[in-house]
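Aim 2 progress update. The chain analyzed this quarter is reproduced below.
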Amino acid sequence: MSYNYGREVRRLQNRQAQEDAELREAGVSEVFIEILHKMNWRDLKADRVFYTHNVQSIDDIFNIVTYTMHDEDTVDNIEELLVMIDNPALRQLLMDTDKLTLEMLFLKMQGYSVDDIAMELGKQTDAVYKRLSRIKKKIKFTLA
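Predicted structure tokens:
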């Protein structure tokens, strides 16, 4: 599933309407509110570019997983990886994923090639590619 720009625009507009009411009630100037609007729209446009153009390969997915982690430290096992992910939807998706696929994902994030992963886990190379492809699609759907 692709990034739904229309849905994100509606979410932003609803959120801005609520924030505007709260800020005006607190006595914040209109100039400052307008600056916040511009910043929010700039962030929305940046997200659109990121999710529609940058999520192309499995390596991009690993970068997204790493980006959503609250520490930049290396992780030693899958359980640490799951605990470190800040995005609740992504964390839940990975927790619901079978152990073998998670292990493949973890090894790929560690820099192993698909051939090395297949040999390490005793699986066919095509099976590793397929599982990584499926988890990639699920992550893209979750983040869209």
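The chain is about 75% helix and 0% strand. The radius of gyration is 19 Å. These observations will guide the mutagenesis experiments scheduled for the next reporting period.
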